[in-house]
Amino acid sequence: MTAALALGDDALVLSHRLGEWAGHAPVLEEEVALANIALDLLGQARLLLSLVGDEDELAYLREERAFRNVQLVEQPNGDFAHTIARQLYFSVHQHGLYERLAAGGSEFAGIAAKAVKEVAYHQDHAEQWTLRLGDGTPESRDRMQRAVDALWRFTGELFQPVEGVEVDWNALRSDWLASVTTVLERATLTVPTGPQSGAWTAGAGRQGIHTEPFGRMIAEMQHLHRSHPGASW
User: Fold this and answer.
1) Are the CB atoms for 86 and 73 separated by under 8 Å?
2) DSSP state, residue 190
3) How far apart are CA 162 and CA 43, in angstroms?
4) Dist. CA 188–CA 210, nearest whole Å
């Protein structure tokens, strides 16, 4: 069930990262919005991981190398612009992927059909903030451009084929690039290109190789469960 683990881990890890904004979001409205997006992703993760086994054990008892999420979703929140850039890149990808899965006949069709409406909101939220920050003050534009550039190198891994996910990955990548380019240009931002941006450099998260911040995140996420084995509400 490589596919269920990959998609479930993407949602689980990004959900945790967004949850880290609790009590720290720039305005109260964003406190609610980011929490709701995190809860949507957590619900998706539970459905997907339950296809593999016990969702709690998979979330809280696996070692770092056993996770199959892309490296993009594990990147630290950084400032608000970094969180929005990460969310833009991932939600555009996830929306395109889930639309295709919902229209197909795989075991993920039902989950994708339910989730695609949620992800459409996630994408719209990210797009609106990208436009607001990119076409805002010189400071907000500078921060948004730096975030877009810094995270671009992690986007290539989004389009590495996943065993058990039968979609046209090249078409998914082309549609993603067209959508992201349109948003960035509307936001008066420059689309990263060239080797200096690490364009389309694929990571190895799907193979269990993660970036340095991921270990700290997993330790925090799993701390309570590991500290009180067998505990229940």
Assistant:
1) yes
2) P
3) 21
4) 32
Decide: residue 160, CB within 10 A, 0-12 exposed, 13-18 middle, 19+ buried.
middle
Considering the chain, what percentage of its residues have pLDDT values greater than 70?
94
Stated pTM of the model:
0.93
Percent residues over pLDDT 90 in the chain: 82
Answer yes or no: are the C-beta atoms of 150 and 82 closer than 8 Å. yes
Helix (H, G, I), strand (E, B) or coil at 77: coil
Return the closest-CA partner of residue 90 out of 51, 62, 56, 130.
130
As given in the structure block, the two tokens for residue 88 are 């833009």
**Residue 67 · residue 231 · CB < 8 Å:** no
**DSSP code at position 188:** T
Report residue 231 CA to chain centroid gap. 30
How far CA 216 is from CA of 150, 210, 211, 225, in Å, comes to: 20, 11, 10, 15
State how far Cα 169 lies from the chain centre. 17
CB-based burial label for 194 (10 Å; 0-12, 13-18, 19+): exposed
> Stretch 169-184: mean pLDDT, rounded?
97
Cα radius of gyration (the chain): 17
Q: Helices 28-49 & 2-19, crossing angle to 10 degrees?
A: 160
Rounded to whole angstroms, how far apart are CA atoms 176 and 178? 5
The helix/strand/coil state of 69 is: coil
Beta strands in the chain (DSSP E): none
Write out the H or E segment, with its range, that includes residue 133: helix 109-134
